[in-house]
Design goal:
Shape: globular
Strand order of the largest sheet: 1-2-9-4-7
Radius of gyration: 14 Å
Number of strands: 10
Structural class: mainly beta
Largest sheet: 5 strands, antiparallel
Number of helices: 0
Helix content: under 10%
Order of helices and strands: EEEEEEEEEE
Strand content: over 45%
Length: 107
């Protein structure tokens, strides 16, 4: 049995080909990410990976479309998006497959 703390992981990523991780693999990456209102990520895309984002709590905006708790967004290769957190306490679960190091391209 392994025990870890999410806050010990880098930006919430706990499965993937990086350190620290609970399962070192290139097959998939998994994270639980916490955000504050105003957190923003510039528009980007992946050439290889598909990224699935589940909104666990709060509200976010991707490509000027608002999403809330319970929404699931699937970004396939070459789909570009930005990310803006609209309220404190927002949390997402992100699954990226395959795990692809250096597969983030800014627009």
């Amino acid at each position: 049995m392994k025990i870890a703390k999410l806050d010990e992981m880098i930006k919430g990523w706990f499965v993937g080909n990086f350190e620290p991780t609970l399962i070192k693999t290139n097959d998939v990456e998994v994270a639980v990410k916490d955000y504050k209102k105003g957190d923003y990520e510039k528009k980007h895309y992946h050439k290889i990976a598909t990224e699935i984002t589940v909104i666990n709590s709060g509200r976010v905006k991707l490509n000027n479309v608002e999403y809330k708790k319970g929404d699931i967004i699937v970004m396939e290769p070459n789909d570009a998006t930005d990310f803006e957190c609209l309220e404190d306490g927002t949390q997402t679960t992100v699954v990226k497959f395959p795990g692809a190091n250096d597969d983030k391209y800014f627009v």
